[in-house]
Amino acid sequence: MKNADQENIVIVVHGGAWNIPESLLESTRTGVEAAVREGWQVLIAGGSALDAVEAAVNHMEDNPLFDAGIGAALTRDGDVELDAIIMDGKTLSAGAVAGITHIQNPVSLARKVMEKTSHVMLIADGALKFAKEIGFPLVKKETLITDEALLEWKRFHSFNHTIDELFSHDTVGAVALDKEGNIAAATSTGGITAKMPGRVGDSPIIGSGAYADNKIGGASATGHGESIMKVTLTRHAVYLLEQGLSAQKAAENSLHYMFQRVHGFGGLILLDRVGNVGIHFTTTHMPWAYIKNGNLYSGV
Ligand code: GLY
Questions:
Q1: CA 106/CA 90 separation, integer angstroms
Q2: How far is the CA of 254 from the centre of ligand 1 (A)?
Q3: Which of 40, 121, 237, 266 stands the most exposed, by the fewest C-beta atoms within 10 Å?
Q4: In terms of Cα–Cα distance, which of 286, 241, 283, 287 is closest to 264?
Q5: By residue range, what is the domain housing residue 124?
Q6: What's the sign of the alpha-carbon dihedral 86, 219, 284, 282?
Q7: Ligand 1 pocket test, candidate residues 82, 167, 187, 203, most atoms within 8 A of CB
């Protein structure tokens, strides 16, 4: 049985919760608008929620403005270590990758993990080996490193910040509801600048970086990974939906809870099972966009 009508098809995306410089406000907003259109085109052509969130996230992974794929934040040693997850609310299946390089679209590799293995997450060398085995496209590490990411990395090194101060630009994500009533969520990130080599954040962890359940709703998170993991932010938000809160209230209360409990900052996008949207962030900015009934809404 369908639990959503055609008119309830909806997709919402975010481009990371952080303190965006004035000079990037417009371009990041344009970037999330382009990504949400990409996902929307998939949905109206009859594609699944999974196809739509993958397409939207791929678009932001390819955009050097965002901390995912090309443009990823660099580790303490100047390397690229990417994390991503995709989750199917119909079956609760998920695929994730962590600590990977040489992959421009980690969320697509995460989907392959979900569809082609009996596992949920592959990391580092094992994930790369899997990518090679299935003929997944590889890129040179340099392809993923932008001048801006290098500048930011140098800036952090010069000022000798602590890890908690290093939370700068952050993560992309999408949640969609398709015409069959299926919800999917996806999140992809380079993590936080100057993170320790081997550090994995919230993004590839089910219930932290993303969660989707057709019976309740779906969410994608952005923000300080160590805080998000401690409160399993997206599962928390979906639980609040289950308790009867609106999508907007669930997003607000979850981020409030994270601040109260662990003093963490971040952002959430949320859909309930019939396509009501929740968007909230406790950082200065978070570019977001959604399309519902053919109308595009966006903000920073
Ligand atoms: N939210 C992304 C990270 O902390 O890695």
A1: 22
A2: 17
A3: 121
A4: 283
A5: 4-299
A6: negative
A7: 203
pLDDT at residue 8 in the model: 79
* CA dihedral over 207, 211, 217, 219, signed as positive or negative: positive
CA atoms within 13 A on the CB side of 258: 32
Q: Which burial class, exposed, middle or buried, applies to 298 when counting CB atoms under 10 A from its CB (0-12, 13-18, 19+)?
A: middle
Query: Is 154 a residue whose pLDDT tops 90?
Result: no
Which residue out of 171, 189, 193, 234 is catalytically annotated? 171
Report CA(37)–ligand 1 centroid distance (Å).
25
Mean pLDDT of the chain: 94
Q: Give the number of domains in the chain.
A: 1
Q: Radius of gyration over alpha carbons of the chain, in Å?
A: 17
**Which residue is listed with tokens 């519902």?**
292
pLDDT of residue 168: 62
**Residue 284, number of CB atoms within 10 A of its CB:** 11
What is residue 10's three-state secondary structure? strand
CATH number, domain containing residue 37: 3.60.20.30
Q: Say how many C-beta atoms besides its own lie within 10 A of residue 27's C-beta.
A: 13
Both tokens of residue 111?
Answer: 């989907």
- pLDDT classification of 41: cutoffs 50, 70, 90: very high
